[in-house]
Amino acid sequence: MTENGPLTFRYHFTFSDGRTVSLEANLDPQTLEYIPPDGREVPAWAQFDYLPCAQCVEKSRESIFCPIAANVRDVIEAFQDVYSFENVDVVVETQDRLYTKKQFPIQQALSSFLGIIMVSSGCEDLDKLRPMVKFHLPFATFEETIYRAASMYLLAQYFRGKHGMDPDWDIQELVDIYQRISSINANLCKRLQNATEKDAGLNAVVILDTFTKMVPFSIEDALGDIEHLFSPYLP
Amino acid sequence: MPTLLVTDDNPPSLNYTMFLLKKLRIDVVSARSGNDALGKAENGSFDGVLIDINLGAGMSGIELMHGLRKKEKFRNTPIIAVTAFYGDLSPEELISEGFTDFLAKPFQIADLKNILEKYLPPEKPA
Question: Which pTM was predicted?
Answer without folding.
Answer: 0.90
